[in-house]
Amino acid sequence: MARITRGAWPSFSVRAMDTTDRPLLHTNVDGWRNVYSGLGQEGVDKRVSSTFQNRALFGQADFEALYHQNWLVQRVVETMADEMTREWIEVLVDESFETAEAIAEALEQLDVQSKFREALIWEALFGGSAILMGIDDGQDTDMPVLPARIGVVRFVEVIERWYLYPDVASIDADPSSPTFGQPLIWVMQLQGGTQRRIHTSRLLTFKGALATRTWRLSNQGWGLSKLEPVYDAIRDWGTALDGAATSVQDFVWSVLKMQGLADALDGDDGDKVVTNRVKGFKLGLGMAKLALIDAEGEELTRMGAPVTGLADLLDRFREAVAGAAKIPSPILFGQSKGTLAGADADIRTFYDQVRAAQNARVLPLLKRLVDVVCLSRDGPTSRKIPTYKLKPRSLWQATDKEQAEARKVQADVDKAYLDAGVLYASEVRESRFGGAGYSFDTVIDEDLSALLEESESDPPEPAPLPGSPDPGSKEPPDKAAGGAEDDPKADPTSPQVG
Questions:
Q1: Predicted TM-score (pTM) of this structure
Q2: What confidence tens digit (pLDDT) does each residue in 228-246 have?
Q3: Coil, strand or helix at 396
């Protein structure tokens, strides 16, 4: 029989035994540990000594210094925020383009687009931020917003996470509440050391990158900075780039061979003699680009530093940064390597990620702000929340040729729907050209469809043929039609006959 004895996982030993329990054969089954080659053995295999080191986390001063002084850190932190707010959001209101324009204008007056961009940047850098809505509802800021009493939204202002922390005593402990586990009151630090309590209904909170509950509890409720997991890749790339810049300065150097150099250095004034010779050599080389050397006792050699493979090595560091930041290299560094089709595919995939982030993080917060603006006394909808939709605009900017081709395809599709009776001409016209610009979205006019379907199900009665009786007439059919009995000549007994 065979007996299996567990060793250091995942290595184990198999010992074959006979019926007398005497060891007959001992075999090592090697997995990630090999006693002969040293694989997996500490002190022999270098990989075993490589362990993850939990470095100290950055503080506010560290984040600010990196952001203000390193251009690549700025790119990593700002790129996603720039893309999410570059083309911004389109407001769509059912059957009312004017209402949609009024809402968009109200958001523009509050400078919402730039405020969201700033909040997203600080969220990426610091791990969190918030937008304070200056809602005037006649209450203190630590009270919930009363929608029926909103007078005006005076401002929206961005707050960095360092000046806003949760009131632990206000954390919602009701499991049935939508805000369960979240603070209902935040404390805002003001200049001069004063504080202001803010109810969560007056804040749009950007909570940072996903982090564990333990992390958030130790980080005053905020999430992870985008810079934390990317820092090592940025440091390695910067170090490699600085090394390349240093090698360029030492790209070519001169070697001067002097006969009797060792003997000269052993003399009383050996150091002075050699130093003066080197100074004279460098002076002549710098002024006249000429090297004056002894024909028999000296030899000058010009040597260059090998840079083969340096460009590929820097590209590897660059791709490491792009991968850690989850941003394509053509966007992050402003240049592409490889085929244009490959770069376009990477950019389109990134834009899909941006759209997903807009839907998950930006639109819910923006909808809260739009609702508050619409409910305000001086709002664009007279204290009513219309049926509306917030749609992120496309980030991919098509060329004129691509736009023309796309419209041609859409026109063919519209014609097929018109011929099949799926759409009406007025619906196509309003969907494509009823807004501020051309739109590929098709909107069905339910009222028009219902009206036309009703008219088609109850067709009008056909018009009577000439000479046929009027359906509403009480005259006999012959008289109503002006029959033969009305004609005296047609009566054989009439005296007028013949």
A1: 0.70
A2: 999 999 999 999 988 888 7
A3: coil
